[in-house]
Design goal:
The structure holds 2 protein chains of 2 kinds.
Chain A: E1 4-14, E2 17-28, E3 32-36, H1 43-51, E4 56-65, E5 68-69, H2 75-80, E6 83-86, H3 98-110, H4 123-136, H5 154-168, E7 172-176, H6 184-197, E8 203-207, H7 212-216, E9 221-226, E10 229-234, H8 236-245, H9 248-253, H10 255-269
Parallel strand pairs in A: 3-8, 3-9, 6-7, 7-8
Antiparallel strand pairs in A: 1-2, 1-4, 4-5, 9-10
Chain B: E1 11-13, E2 29-31, H1 37-47, H2 51-66, E3 88-89, H3 103-112, H4 116-122, H5 132-144, E4 148-151, H6 152-158, H7 160-166, H8 177-185, E5 190-194, E6 204-205, E7 220-225, E8 230-236, E9 247-248, E10 251-256, E11 261-268, E12 275-284, E13 289-296, E14 301-304, E15 307-310, E16 316-325, E17 330-339, E18 345-354, E19 359-368, E20 376-385, E21 391-400, E22 406-414, H9 418-425, H10 431-442, H11 444-447, H12 452-467
Helix pairs in contact in B: 1-2, 2-8, 6-7, 9-10, 10-12
The chains are: A alpha/beta, B alpha/beta.
């Protein structure tokens, strides 16, 4: 069973402002796609729109999983269909233990029909599993007792996102700059972790500025975003080129999109 | 006035299940509605009290009648003192029938998975929790150590000197109108004495007292922790507690002597017809520690400010309070810390939540007397307002008469952050589940201090409240 996440002509506004102006991508389970582009190009907007953030409005186009239109669905429905977003800046949830949170998350994902208050995964079973996953990721078991993202360093937050990925085993994982703000050791841990977790069951979209994450997770497809659209698609060598040489060539090849992007960057700077 | 059996004109007979008996004990007794010296005398007689207590009650009644209603706090305009029964003693069965218990409450018991027998007890349908077998041996252990743990009525009878030495010393009847009321008509409650150096390892719970009702309207609790002793006492429960009585006015007095430790945990969830007006105060002596853990979930109006008077150097006090106000509810809760001696410290953590039009307030006092040098006090009060119809207020009072002290006060008001909600929902939690999780995270500093089964029940109850299936 090879599921497809199909993004067709996606236009997304934040408030009144159009950010995405017609994005097209198809991601299959088992594929790794890299999404690169300068600041203001709309990469994070795409990530949030896919995850179903209420502030991001789809004004045209669609998002489908295996032909099912998910564009109107709430974030939790999408999660239960197998969508996952690893946040760039994971928010703190005070007073909520990692283990409690994960137990609820896992119970919902594995049993999408679950009603609130029922059918939580058994404690013993859950503990065993989370311990195994944390072991594989080289995480201290004490982590599970801490409050979600509260007082976590940047690296710890990113590892927490990967742990969630490991436990929830989504069909489609979007990683929003998971390697930014980390030292090389931390990047390596995250990259190796992802490499272990991805496989034929997972379609991955890696949003990144850097190449490091891609070293362990070489993409079959690299997309470049500029001015709210995907302007070029290539393979792993495109990623490598961008990392080495920056976006100057891209901007030169796509002047209209570059102009749009410049406007967006200026607006963001205000 | 003094007769062996009340005349028919004075009383209404309650449960007819067992018919009439000769012995007084088997009469179900209910005073007539209203409050006057005759009724107060009746109560004292029914209990067979010494004359000093009868006098005490009558004086208290006079004080109650002379005091005006408070012009702050909640709205008590609906409260009619003459329209209430002030004393009721059941024979074997309680007055309430299971059918009278509101539907939402019965449903909540089901959803909380509460066993049949316990449901009836909580709803006041059954006089006693069937815990004799389990807790009988506990009582033996305690008495071997010299611990006295009984109900207040029995304590007056069985330990008169000890009782009289401390009763009314922490909260005299003149303290406030409702302390005066309780002093006039008190019945039931716990009496605990822990001898020097005795440390009770496990929490003592109110329903260990198997020899009387626990849902008293006017409970009077007195706890004496002697030097170097330690106790944790737990009363109330998270499940909604149905009471056909609309006025509950309890008094709790605690004395913690030098080096002693006392933690008093209450989780109260009275049904939404109840006015819950409570005076709780502890005196903490040298190097002692007193902690109030106070959870207020139900009732129409709760006014409760657990207080600690730090009497001698080295005394420490802490109050953790949460108040959850739903539709039609007003929780006016908080704490009071009074520093009467140098080198004392206090901490108040208050978490209030309001939803569905509820109103949740923090009302607190930190007072430092002159010459109480080197004191530290820290107050954190956080409010979470869950929707635009709901309301939260803060009334912090700080009265410091000494310069050489460190007093801190932090307050915050928030709503459920959209980003937090989105984060949890993106992991498959429904909006209701995510909101409940954020709320339980908000009160976690208090919940982690509760005995396990309370913590679990409390979290479960919050979840139900957030689903909107509980009123």
């Amino acid at each position: 069973m090879n599921s497809v996440l199909k993004i067709s002509n996606l236009h997304v506004n934040v408030g009144e402002t159009p950010i995405l102006k017609g994005v097209n991508i198809e991601i299959r389970q088992g594929e790794i796609h890299a999404l690169m582009g300068p600041n203001g190009s709309g990469k994070s907007t795409l990530a949030y729109a896919l995850a179903g953030h209420p502030n991001y409005t789809v004004t045209d186009g669609s998002i489908e999983i295996d032909g099912v239109n998910i564009t109107e669905m709430e974030a939790d429905e999408r999660a239960r269909l197998g969508m996952f977003l690893a946040f760039q800046y994971p928010v703190v949830i005070p007073g909520v233990k990692v283990a409690d949170f994960l137990r609820h998350a896992v119970s919902n994902i594995r049993n999408p029909e679950r009603k609130e208050g029922e059918g939580l995964m058994g404690m013993r079973e859950f503990r065993k599993e989370i311990r195994e996953r944390m072991n594989e990721l080289g995480m201290d078991p004490e982590f599970a007792r801490r409050y979600l993202n509260d007082g976590f360093s940047g690296g710890e937050k990113k590892r927490m996102e990967i742990l969630q990925l490991a436990m929830l085993q989504p069909r489609f994982a979007i990683l929003d700059e998971t390697d930014s703000g980390l030292d090389s050791d931390a990047v390596r841990v995250v990259s190796e972790g992802l490499a272990k977790l991805s496989g034929p069951q997972m379609g991955v979209l890696i949003i990144t500025h850097h190449e490091r994450l891609l070293e362990f997770n070489p993409p079959q497809f690299t997309h470049v975003m500029l001015g709210g659209r995907i302007v070029e698609t290539g393979d792993a060598s495109l990623a490598h080129d961008l990392h080495a040489n920056g976006y100057a060539n891209i901007r030169a090849r796509h002047p209209d999109a570059a102009a749009e992007n410049a406007k967006a960057e200026a607006a963001a700077a205000v | 006035m003094s007769t062996d059996t009340p005349t028919k004109s004075d009383v209404e007979f309650g449960s007819y299940k067992y018919g009439f008996h000769d012995s007084m004990d088997n009469y179900a007794f209910k005073s007539r509605k209203g409050l006057d010296p005759e009724i107060v005398r009746q109560i004292s007689e029914m209990k067979g009290e010494p004359s000093w207590m009868t006098e005490f009650r009558l004086e208290s009644l006079a004080i109650f009648e002379s005091r005006p209603m408070p012009n702050w706090g909640g709205d008590m305009t609906d409260l009619n003192f003459q329209d209430i029964f002030y004393y009721m003693k059941a024979a074997n069965e309680q007055e309430t029938s299971w059918e009278d218990v509101p539907e939402e409450i019965r449903r909540t018991y089901d959803r909380l998975g509460i066993p049949e027998a316990e449901k009836k007890y909580l709803a006041g349908v059954k006089a006693q929790y069937d815990s004799e077998v389990v807790y009988g041996s506990l009582q033996e252990d305690l008495s071997k150590q010299g611990v006295i743990f009984t109900d207040t009525d029995s304590a007056l009878r069985d330990h008169p000197e000890l009782f009289r030495e401390y009763f009314g010393t922490v909260i005299p009847p003149g303290d406030n109108k409702f302390a005066a009321l309780n002093s006039a008509v008190w019945s039931g409650g716990s009496f605990i004495y822990v001898p020097k150096g005795v440390k009770i390892e496990f929490p003592l719970q109110a329903y260990f007292r198997i020899n009387s009702q626990n849902m008293g309207q006017f409970e009077r609790t007195l706890i004496i922790v002697d030097e170097g002793a330690a106790i944790h006492y737990v009363e109330g429960c998270t499940a909604p507690t149905y009471s056909s009585n609309s006025l509950h006015s309890a008094v709790v007095e605690i004395i913690v002597k030098r080096g002693g430790r006392c933690r008093y945990t209450t989780i109260q969830n009275w049904s939404s017809n109840v006015y819950n007006l409570v005076t709780k105060r502890a005196m903490a002596y040298g190097d002692s520690l007193m902690e109030w853990i106070d959870g207020n979930l139900g009732s129409k109006l709760t006014m409760k400010y657990p207080a600690i008077w730090l009497m001698e150097p080295g005394a420490r006090g802490e109050t953790l309070s949460i108040a959850f106000a739903g539709e039609g509810q007003h929780q006016d809760a908080g704490a009071k810390m009074v520093h009467c001696a140098p080198n004392t410290s206090s901490r108040i953590i208050s978490k209030s939540i309001s939803r569905g039009g509820g109103r949740s307030s923090y009302r607190g006092l930190v007072k430092v007397h002159k010459d109480a040098v080197n004191c530290r006090s820290n107050v954190v009060c956080d409010a979470l307002i869950l929707d635009p119809a709901s309301r939260s207020d803060t009334y912090p009072y700080i009265e410091v008469e000494e310069e050489n002290v460190a007093i801190e006060h932090e307050a915050s008001v928030s709503k459920i952050a959209e980003e937090q909600l989105f984060y949890l929902m993106s992991r498959g939690l429904s909006e209701a589940e995510a909101s409940a999780m954020i709320v339980t995270g908000f009160i976690e500093p208090l919940v982690k201090e509760l005995p396990m089964e309370y913590a679990v029940e409390l979290n479960r109850l919050i979840e139900l409240q957030m689903e909107g299936s509980v009123g």
